[in-house]
Write a structure and sequence with these properties.
This protein is an alpha/beta fold. The chain is built from eleven helices and eight strands. The chain has a domain of 225 residues: Alpha/Beta hydrolase fold, catalytic domain (Rossmann fold, 3-Layer(aba) Sandwich). A hairpin with a 5-residue loop joins β1 and β2.
Amino acid sequence: MNDTTKKEHYTFELSDKVTRQKVTFKNRYGIMLSGDLYLPKERGNDPLAAIAISGPFGAVKEQSSGLYANQMAGRGFAALAFDPSYTGESGGEPRAVASPDINTEDFSAAVDYLGIQKNIDRSKIGIIGICGFAGFALNATAIDKRVRAVATTSMYDMTRVMSKGYNDAVTLEERSKTLEQLGEQRWKDAEAGTFAPGAILNPEKLKGNEPQFVKEYHDYYRTPRGYHERSLNSTGAWNATNALSFMNMPILTYIKEISPRPMLLIAGEKAHSRYFSEDAYKMAAEPKELLIIPNAVHVDLYDKTDLIPFGKLETFFKEHLK
């Protein structure tokens, strides 16, 4: 076993029905993305239907997206879990940056990659977005007609939550103050010639008085359950000015244009983020389906295989990728 193999750390066990291989592909901005391609061991000679998967926001492919890909490959799909630009093992400088545009493009770049593989049928490609990458998945599907079906779990619309706060509670005065602070931070970064990090996303230890959903994030990202050393949510922070490009860039403007391709939105009944999925469902055109998982919280749909409706995801994609 070589050194690189020793260092590989996944937060889930690889299925004995599945193979996994590291792949790289470039997006339209020239950023080299890193992914893991999961394939069913038992497959015929016909090209496979395929699914591109990413998220949660601030996570890496060795966490939730890889777990999903592992599950979907075990159900007969080619599944590509990938690290978004500027994070994980993917390229892009500076590090720890997100972008509504570039992260949407990352999904289409994954579709590019899948569609030129000889063992994949390019007319049968879907995407799954988890958490913040659910919003990008919907945005990518709206613009990329090659995507035949889209599913989301524990969806966040990152442009909405960054610009308006949870439940749209941020006032215009608060928003203006935040933008002034971000502008001041740009001066500091320009003077320093580097990008200062923002607040640590999940501290090693909680004080105990945090909101329940913060405790739930901590339980996933900061414990052996979901910890990964390359995950910003486990160990780090986005750049201090990361929110800027999200503040006036609504990503669900064209959600109706996903139709007539099908959409499946999955959310936990007790998830603090549930309203994002419900509102996206209201905005979207048919065919669409909203599935609420009883008693589940937001992070349950990251890794709890007894709660994540993989059977439903399997039937959804088998029906619509044919």
